[in-house]
């Protein structure tokens, strides 16, 4: 019997795992060490139909449920969270265009993802991280186009992206815009705040917009509704971050367990010490519990019920578990766990970085807290038994 229960159709999960083991895992250490955007792997994902899983068939995608997308990201995250976040940036762009983009925008960009289009999601600025209610980047509309000016920071996948989804201030509130990289006035550069110790998929670059002009239909959703649009979209991508976190927790668990079952101390295998077994028992229970919450969040998205609550809970729990499990994995492996050429430090660094990127733990708790505060008192009681 397999250690991990499959929460999706077994043949789909196996094809995701096969892809992750064949094309992602072998390059994971190099991508992390050299801080590289995984261009070849993203292209390979596209060739396998995995760069447009959520995109409906009419736009050239696979038209999968969100549960299946979660299962894909769990498998990729187990192999390399850096590749996972590269594919997640693409997902963010697809999903927002699909849900609120103009039909002309959908027809123009969605089919390109199946061919390997790469994207970034650019909300953060130097002076606006958790708080993006107002921004310094500005978008102004005239008769021909929108013109964007400003600078975005910390942009994941920015070295590889062909398309940027940008949140900018307009005279009527925030707006979301699709900006192709080849637009005159668009450039990226790595700054002293671009290199992270975890989730390394190329520097998290600065994106400069200097008189960048884009067509009117490249506004995504309504002007003034930008915050709502990007936050709703983050509910989806943060669930994928949760999936990757639990994937890397699984991998750290499996590899450290294999190590202690073979390593000897005091004439016995390290695993045979009861104290060591307790670590694994606790980690297994935490991973199993977090996976249940993760797939509950996936279903909540597919069924469109309490999405904000469930996606926030899933990321909170999966990141917490991933941090616990990856730290324990280092501990039980002793000095080997701390070696730069053992994989455990990467799992730990990636797990820690997931506690900040894509919704910090504090902001997620605020979201769940607000949800609870909105409930009427009679909603707090359990449903009466029929
Ligand atoms: C690896 C990585 C990748 C990233 N990729 C992208 C990307 O692709 N696109 C993008 O736009 N951004 C990206 N970011 C930026 C990310 O979204 C921000 O780092 C995040 O929103 C937090 O902002 P900040 O770092 O400015 O922290 P700050 O806003 O300065 O917050 C500092 C601390 O205060 C806490 N805090 C803030 N507000 C509250 C509050 N109301 N209540 C309690 N605590 C609070 C935060 O949780 C944090 O712990 C990335 C970040 C990382 C680490």
TrEMBL record:
<keyword id="KW-0285">Flavoprotein</keyword>
<dbReference type="InterPro" id="IPR037069">
    <property type="entry name" value="AcylCoA_DH/ox_N_sf"/>
</dbReference>
<protein>
    <submittedName>
        <fullName>Acyl-CoA dehydrogenase family protein</fullName>
    </submittedName>
</protein>
<dbReference type="Pfam" id="PF02771">
    <property type="entry name" value="Acyl-CoA_dh_N"/>
</dbReference>
<dbReference type="InterPro" id="IPR006091">
    <property type="entry name" value="Acyl-CoA_Oxase/DH_mid-dom"/>
</dbReference>
<dbReference type="InterPro" id="IPR009100">
    <property type="entry name" value="AcylCoA_DH/oxidase_NM_dom_sf"/>
</dbReference>
<dbReference type="Pfam" id="PF00441">
    <property type="entry name" value="Acyl-CoA_dh_1"/>
</dbReference>
<dbReference type="InterPro" id="IPR036250">
    <property type="entry name" value="AcylCo_DH-like_C"/>
</dbReference>
<dbReference type="InterPro" id="IPR013786">
    <property type="entry name" value="AcylCoA_DH/ox_N"/>
</dbReference>
<feature type="domain" description="Acyl-CoA dehydrogenase/oxidase N-terminal">
    <location>
        <begin position="14"/>
        <end position="116"/>
    </location>
</feature>
<feature type="domain" description="Acyl-CoA dehydrogenase/oxidase C-terminal">
    <location>
        <begin position="224"/>
        <end position="371"/>
    </location>
</feature>
<comment type="similarity">
    <text>Belongs to the acyl-CoA dehydrogenase family.</text>
</comment>
<dbReference type="InterPro" id="IPR009075">
    <property type="entry name" value="AcylCo_DH/oxidase_C"/>
</dbReference>
<dbReference type="InterPro" id="IPR046373">
    <property type="entry name" value="Acyl-CoA_Oxase/DH_mid-dom_sf"/>
</dbReference>
<keyword id="KW-0274">FAD</keyword>
<dbReference type="Pfam" id="PF02770">
    <property type="entry name" value="Acyl-CoA_dh_M"/>
</dbReference>
<feature type="domain" description="Acyl-CoA oxidase/dehydrogenase middle">
    <location>
        <begin position="121"/>
        <end position="209"/>
    </location>
</feature>
């Amino acid at each position: 019997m397999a250690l991990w229960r499959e929460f999706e159709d077994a043949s789909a999960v196996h094809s995701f795992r096969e892809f992750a083991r064949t094309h992602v895992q072998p390059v994971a250490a190099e991508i992390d060490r050299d801080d590289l955007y995984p261009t070849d792997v993203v292209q390979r994902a596209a060739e396998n139909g995995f760069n447009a899983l959520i995109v409906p068939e009419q736009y050239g995608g696979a038209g999968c449920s969100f549960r299946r997308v979660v299962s894909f990201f769990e498998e990729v995250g187990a192999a390399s969270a850096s590749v996972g976040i590269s594919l997640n940036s693409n997902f963010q762009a697809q999903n927002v265009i699909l849900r609120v983009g103009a039909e002309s925008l959908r027809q123009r960009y969605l089919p390109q993802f199946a061919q390997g289009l790469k994207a970034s999601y650019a909300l953060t600025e130097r002076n606006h991280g958790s708080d993006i209610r107002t921004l310094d980047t500005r978008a102004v509309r005239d008769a021909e186009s929108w013109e964007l000016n400003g600078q975005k920071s910390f942009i994941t996948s920015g070295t590889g992206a062909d398309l940027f989804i940008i949140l900018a201030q307009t005279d009527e509130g925030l707006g979301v815009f699709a900006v192709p990289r080849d637009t005159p006035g668009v450039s990226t550069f790595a700054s002293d705040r671009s290199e992270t110790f975890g989730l390394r998929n190329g520097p998290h670059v600065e994106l400069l917009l200097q008189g960048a002009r884009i067509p009117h239909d490249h506004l995504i959703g309504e002007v003034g509704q930008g915050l709502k649009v990007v936050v709703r979209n983050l509910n989806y991508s943060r669930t994928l971050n949760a999936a990757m976190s639990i994937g890397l927790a699984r991998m750290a668990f499996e590899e450290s367990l294999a190590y202690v079952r073979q390593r000897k101390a005091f004439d016995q295998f390290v695993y045979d010490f009861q104290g060591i077994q307790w670590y694994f028992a606790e980690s297994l229970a935490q991973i199993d519990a977090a996976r249940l919450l993760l797939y509950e969040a996936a279903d909540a998205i597919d069924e469109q019920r309490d999405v904000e609550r469930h996606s926030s809970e899933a990321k909170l729990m999966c990141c917490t578990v991933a941090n616990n499990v990856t730290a324990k994995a280092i501990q039980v492996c002793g000095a080997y766990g701390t070696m730069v050429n053992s994989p455990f430090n990467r799992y730990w660094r990636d797990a820690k970085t997931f506690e900040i990127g894509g919704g910090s733990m504090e902001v997620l708790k605020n979201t769940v807290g607000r949800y609870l505060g909105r409930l009427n008192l009679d909603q707090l009681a359990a449903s009466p038994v029929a």
